[in-house]
Structure formats: structure tokens, C-alpha cells
Design goal:
The chain is mainly α. It has 16 helices and no strands. Helix 5 (86-118) packs parallel to helix 10 (175-200) and helix 5 crosses helix 13. It is globular and about 75 Å long.
Length: 309
């Protein structure tokens, strides 16, 4: 009993020290043991490739020939060439159209409509719709690309069979429109799930008060729901815009054809770097693409931080 009683005062200072924020011996070194592997992975797979890309963007490096063995540093020559290159500007324009049509408008609007409609749907209907939409999202990109090629192909395609328009090549005649529809269908699940969670956070009492005040469904949506989930809308728009801007899946479907009419920026960079063998020039375009991503992110964050008056 005396030993137990003697332990109490001896433990009290240690406990008091921990309460004052004192770190136990070896705490920082033990933490580094867990952090170092992550830092090594980030360095090997992110920082070093980024630095290598930055270096290549300043050279005339190619895959073959003299410039592959002895690349020359040309400074900002690749960047100047890219900004004056009509093919690059066209690829950037197609990418912005792809993002606007399939992400900002397509996935945002369709995802919100589905989330809003499923609020009052029966549990069985909600489960069925959510399963179908999620299935499009979790399928591998290669599988989804093959399904849409089969759906829109000119001979024997499902859409031509339904519309009795045999021989119509949707990918060739409407490349960007087909890609926008494809990406909207594929990526709507994320927006639907995010908006479903956002709508559940809107207090029912606010909707009921608006209804009792005579507000119709559209007025409730405009004056109560959308202001209440404004932050969720902007966050969703930021994420799906960045994902779509960097999406390489269109290459699996069209390979940039016909005549580069569907070559969005990631596809254009790939075609320039490997088939075109211009790694230095493609690296410079990649860094320009990174800057555009950062500007988009900063614009969204700036809007998100604003508070309605």
C-alpha cells in the first residue's frame, strides 16, 4: 500500500508536464520515421519529375537524333513558340470548351438535378438511380471508352440502330460534342453525391418557412437552397474542372482525330511528346498547362472566400 501511495506524487509532475504541452522524449524523431517514407515518395514521384520537366522545357530535347544525345538549352524559346502556335491555341480552346460543356455545365447541372429529384423519390428508385450513376463512375476508363465507341460507331452502333441512321459517324462528325456528352455521363456521379450531401444540410425549417410565405419550388431553390449550398457548388465546380482539364481519356476514344479536331490539351501534349518526339516543346506546354490549372484554382478559391452581403 505504501508503494502505491508513493507512486502518486511521482506520477503527478509527469502528468502535469504533459498537460502543459511538453513532448515526451523521442516524440519528434518517432514522428519523422512515419513522415520520411511519404516525403521520399513525394520527392521521387512528384518533385523530381516536375524539376525534370522544368529543365526539359528549357531545351530542344527530342526522342531521337542529335538533340536526344546533346540537347541545347534554348531558354524561353519553347514557351514563346507555344504561345504563337495556332495548334496549341486550338487545343487550349477545345479544352476550355470541354471543361465548360462537360464539367461546369454538364456534370454540375445534371448532378444537381439528380440530387434534387432523388430527395423525394422512393428508396427503391433512389437506390436504382444511384447504382446506375455510380456504375458509370467506377468503371475503368478503358472499359467506358470501349462502351462509348461501340455506342456511337458508324456501323452497328447502338445509337444509329435506335435512330435508324446507319452509317452516321458521330465521333467523326461531332467529335467535341460527343466527348462532352461522354464525359458528362461518366463524371456526373461525383457531383450527384456531393450535392446530395449538401442538400441534406439545408434545414427543412427554412424550406417550410419559404413555402408558408408563398414561395414556389423555383423560388425556394433560388432564394434558400442555392445560397445555402453555394460553397459546395463552387467546391464541386473547382474539382471537376481541374479533373476534366487534365483528363486523358479522350485519347482512348478518338486519339485526337479527325485531324486533331478532338485533341484536347493533354492529348495534344502526348501527341507532341511521343509520336512527335518533341519532348522539350511538350514539357513547356505541360508547364503552361500547370499555370492555367493554378490560375483556375486561385480564381475559384477567391470566389469561394467571398461572402454574400
Amino acid at each position: 500500500m505504501r508503494a502505491e501511495a508513493g507512486d502518486g506524487p511521482g506520477l503527478a509532475p509527469a502528468a502535469a508536464g504533459r498537460r502543459r504541452g511538453e513532448r515526451p522524449p523521442g516524440g519528434r524523431s518517432q514522428g519523422l520515421v512515419f513522415v520520411i517514407p511519404a516525403l521520399l515518395l513525394i520527392t521521387v514521384f512528384l518533385i523530381l519529375p516536375a524539376l525534370w520537366t522544368l529543365y526539359l522545357g528549357l531545351t530542344d530535347y527530342r526522342l531521337t537524333g542529335l538533340q536526344a544525345a546533346h540537347p541545347k538549352v534554348i531558354g524561353t524559346g519553347n514557351y514563346t513558340q507555344a504561345l504563337g502556335d495556332k495548334e496549341f491555341r486550338d487545343a487550349l480552346g477545345r479544352t476550355l470548351l470541354f471543361v465548360l460543356g462537360s464539367a461546369v455545365i454538364g456534370q454540375n447541372v445534371l448532378g444537381f438535378v439528380l440530387a434534387w429529384a432523388l430527395r423525394s423519390a422512393r428508396a427503391s428508385v433512389r437506390a436504382l438511380v444511384e447504382t446506375l450513376v455510380l456504375l458509370a463512375w467506377i468503371l475503368p476508363g478503358v472499359v467506358v471508352a470501349w462502351l462509348w465507341i461501340a455506342f456511337l460507331k458508324d456501323q452497328g452502333g447502338a445509337l444509329n440502330t435506335i435512330l435508324h441512321t446507319s452509317g452516321h459517324d458521330w465521333w467523326f462528325d461531332h467529335p467535341m460534342g460527343s466527348l462532352i456528352v461522354f464525359n458528362t455521363w461518366r463524371g456526373t456521379a461525383f457531383s450527384m453525391m456531393l450535392f446530395s450531401a449538401a442538400l441534406s444540410s439545408v434545414p427543412p425549417s427554412q424550406l417550410e418557412s419559404a413555402r408558408l410565405a408563398g414561395a414556389g419550388g423555383w423560388q425556394q431553390l433560388r432564394d434558400v437552397v442555392i445560397p445555402g449550398i453555394r460553397g459546395h457548388i463552387l467546391t464541386n465546380t473547382l474539382l471537376i474542372s481541374l479533373w476534366t482539364f487534365n483528363d486523358f481519356t479522350p485519347y482512348l476514344i478518338t486519339k485526337g482525330e479527325p485531324h486533331s479536331a478532338s485533341a484536347v490539351l493533354p492529348v495534344y501534349i502526348y501527341l507532341t511528346a511521343l509520336p512527335g518526339e518533341r519532348l522539350g516543346y511538350a514539357s513547356a506546354i505541360s508547364l503552361i498547362m500547370l499555370v492555367i490549372n493554378l490560375l483556375l484554382a486561385l480564381a475559384y478559391v477567391r470566389i469561394l472566400r467571398r461572402r454574400p452581403a
